[in-house]
Design goal:
The protein has helices at residues 21-31, 39-46, 50-62, 78-91. With 92 residues, the protein is mainly α.
């Protein structure tokens, strides 16, 4: 047999891939503003589990950075805040 391995043979079941901080930041940026892609879409696109992305997102939130969808107390973007203000004005 040759010494070449397919990409699927590189990692044994349960072995964790090492992801560089640069790639992690680039992937995480896709679920944050301004892109706001869904975790599921980014996970599928990048080949990283949703659980890992949720973990990274929660780590980012713990560092004090605004992260959409990380909890029920929504932090609104400026556009969302304007829409909420306009809705209140229209209701009055």
């Amino acid at each position: 047999m040759s010494g070449c391995m397919s990409p699927h043979q590189k990692y044994q079941w349960g072995a964790m891939k090492r992801i560089s901080p640069e790639r992690k930041a680039a992937v995480l940026a896709k679920i944050l503003r301004p892109y706001n892609m869904t975790v599921a879409a980014v996970a599928q696109m990048e080949g990283i589990s949703e659980a890992t992305l949720y973990y990274w997102r929660n780590q980012t939130k713990a560092e004090g950075k605004p992260v959409p969808g990380a909890d029920n107390s929504s932090e609104q973007s400026p556009a969302q805040a304007r829409l909420a203000d306009e809705s209140i004005s229209l209701a009055e």
